[in-house]
Amino acid sequence: MKICLKQTQKGMMAMLGNFSYCNPTKLHFGEQSIQALHDELRQYGKRVMLVYGGGSIKRNGIYDEVVGILKAEEKIIYEDAGVMPNPTVEKLYEGCKIARKNEVDLILAVGGGSVCDYAKAVSVSAYCEEDPWDKYYLRMEDVDNRIIPVGCVLTMVGTGSEMNGGSVITNHTQKKKIGHVFGENVFPKFSILNPVLTFSIPKYQMVAGFFDIMSHILEQYFSGEDDNTSDYIMEGLLRSLIHSSRIALKNPMDYEARSNIMWTATWALNTLVAKGKSTDWMVHMIGQAIGAYTDATHGMTLSAVSMAYYRFIAPYGLEKFKKYAINVWDVVPQGKTDRQIADEGLGRMESYMKELGLVMNISELGVTQNMLEDIADSTFVMQGGYKELNHGEIVEILQNSI
Ligand code: NZQ
Ligand code: ZN
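Above: inputs. Below: predicted complex with zinc ion.
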């Protein structure tokens, strides 16, 4: 998106520019939302590829419910199970074969971000005439082949994959974890969100998902110096997340808290709050590089580097870090320097992260000293934040995270 620049006393800064906005995913939210699957399925042909992960959907009953609806709608089901957290390129090739061989009309993903991301990857790759890893992930090209429509039944909250074009695939041989943000034609056609389905997520995954949401918001918030509506929306989303996550931590079956978190996760990364923002994404870039080397849980790769990253970057975007401290963490500014206010905000964020039980250092994820240079080398450097990092600075941040 084109960002307008205006000259100010502080130099050039972004201001809300002109943009087009469309989110084509239809959402069905709530305890009975699965019933919407009947109508949705009627929009597509008979051949449905049912994609899911390692079996949690069988244990919590949603598999039986979905299969029952598919049968009631007289669909032919082609199952593709075993999508692993951080789906691999090998699994993608396998899925492409199933989709092509059976000429499926719809890919129905039932699971978390990994399952939804994988479904989108198969959707664009099944009819790709060259290696989809090279074309869509390494070279990040636009899709110019047939796309199979995707629908999602979400069971894990965090990624926002249910309402965006993101699809992250890991290539362990090449030690690369790459996310392609595809266009609106690849967004899920529909997504079904029942907060009750998230009750069975194990605590480690649950809190990793909570931090993934926080990180998505911060990656977009910590950019630009203009007065931007998106920032006000994000401060509200952050406050809601902090409030509800504390409730969910004590009682994971609190419907109100879990539904608020589910809704916040969707808004955090359904592209709305990115409008008018240059956006940072360096925590995710470092986190993805760590993921390629360790296969660690996505949200924990972010929590483990976030404090070191934000403490490093704060001096370059002090005004926004001050705003964050006051508007999100209720830091009282009177009698304090900007730096003190910003530091207090980051301190409160760190205490909150510890309260959730997040992983706070990369050694806990299996990263060792001798891996730091390679991880820094594999980190893709983005330019939308307050400071474009060089190799040495990434190593320093990793060093401070170990
Ligand atoms: O495999 P199953 O049996 O389904 O178990 C999963 C998995 O072990 C389990 N789980 C999911 N729902 C459950 C449940 N267990 C019990 N009850 C339930 N209701 O949780 C584990 C983790 O699932 P996963 O889908 O891997 O988690 P998440 O949703 O965090 O997805 C992570 C993937 O999404 C990518 C990440 O990089 C990672 O590959 N991301 C995608 C993004 C996007 N599309 O925009 C953006 C994100 O930043 C992220 O990069
Ligand atoms: Zn994320």
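The mean pLDDT is 95.
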